[in-house]
Design brief:
This protein is an alpha/beta fold. Helix content is about 40%, strand content about 10%. The protein is built from twelve helices and ten strands. Strands 3-4-5-6-7-8-9-10 form an eight-stranded parallel beta sheet. Strand 7, helix 6 and strand 8 form a beta-alpha-beta unit. Helix 9 packs antiparallel against helix 12. The longest helix is centred in the last third of the chain and has 16 residues. It is globular. The model has no long low-confidence stretch (mean pLDDT about 90).
């Protein structure tokens, strides 16, 4: 497992991390035992970055992670949580008082005095551009409540605004073979500024898992059922904003171009992780098998293990022919 600098924090995190939205049971039911097994399998495979949020399962994900790490002395894992979605996403709610309340709750959930990294959870653009936002975050660092902060964003313009701020440690943004726009400006700007990039939704909500078909049905409480067209939150978060049937066909093209022994999810994760500027890719996992397979994709980053340049050419061809016209220009 490769490890890469986490911005200017002096920490290093694994090139393949673990996203834990699903451990909050927001993708269908996941028992606490299964959630802990996923965390253990990831850690045992060299994963040293867990990404969570205070709203995943209303704090369930944070609490399970906190309990797991409390029993794993010397774990060396960085926990990146997020805040800002416990209230309506209106600029007036992003105050220093609310920041303190939200981080205090996450500290209790995770069982720590200082949070490793707190990211604003896809706030409005006005919040990302406001000086007061970063003054409040700097105050949290000064108080010892958090060690570092970053911003999770929806658009490239938001990412560039956050990267320009001197104390931002990381930006989290969707990057996958169906979402290429961040490669043009965001990743180079982050690399030049020493800002870490966490690539979220790297498998396009499972479209790039290679296991779904046009007739696949998702549970009613799975966001892939209720947010397919942006009914509950930003449409770009679910299937990366790609039409489901179009995405299934594009994924089949990508899979057909792979050599024997290389799965589509592993190729996709390695491709994202290999892009200059990406610090860590944070796929989710609901089972031990998924967690282990995600971590094992790091092997394809090694020289000679997989022709990433050839796969990149296929990714861009499929994107330009099949997806580009349908992707929202902000993404």
């Amino acid at each position: 497992m490769q490890h890469r600098p986490l911005g200017r924090t002096g920490r290093a995190v694994s090139a393949i991390g673990l996203g834990t939205w699903q451990l909050g049971a927001d993708w269908g039911d996941v028992s606490e035992a299964d959630a802990r097994a996923v965390l253990a399998a990831s850690a045992d495979s060299g994963v040293t970055l867990f990404d969570t949020a205070d709203v995943y399962g209303d704090g369930r994900s944070e609490t399970i992670i906190g309990g797991f790490l409390a029993e794993r002395a010397g774990h060396g894992i960085t926990v990146a949580t997020k805040m800002g979605r416990r209230m309506a996403q209106e600029p007036a709610n992003y105050t220093s008082e609310n920041f303190r309340a939200w981080t205090e709750r996450s500290r209790r959930n995770l069982g720590v005095d200082t949070l490793d990294l707190v990211q604003l959870h896809c706030p409005p653009t006005e919040v990302i551009e406001a000086d007061a936002t970063y003054d409040a975050l700097d105050a949290l660092v000064a108080s010892g409540a958090i060690a570092a902060y970053g911003v999770s964003v929806e658009t490239c313009a938001q990412a560039l605004a956050a990267i320009a701020r001197p104390h931002v440690t990381n930006v989290q943004i969707i990057v996958n073979p169906f979402r290429l726009k961040p490669l043009d400006e965001v990743l180079p700007a982050a690399a030049d500024a020493g800002v870490a990039i966490f690539a979220r939704v790297p498998l396009a909500s499972g479209l790039l898992s290679g296991k779904y078909t046009a007739t696949t049905a998702f549970a009613a409480d799975d966001h892939r059922s209720f947010n397919r067209h942006g009914e509950a939150f930003d449409r770009g978060e679910t299937f990366s904003g790609v039409d489901y049937e179009t995405g299934i066909a594009a994924a089949a093209e990508l899979a057909a171009a792979l050599p024997e022994g290389v799965s589509l999810p592993a190729a996709s994760l390695a491709w994202v992780a290999s892009r200059r500027g990406v610090t860590s890719v944070i796929p989710g996992a609901r089972t031990v098998a998924q967690a282990t397979a995600n971590a094992d994709a790091a092997a394809f980053l090694e020289p000679g293990a997989f022709d990433l340049d050839a796969f990149d050419a296929v990714v861009r061809d499929v994107y330009n022919r099949s997806l580009r016209a349908d992707i929202h220009p902000l993404w």
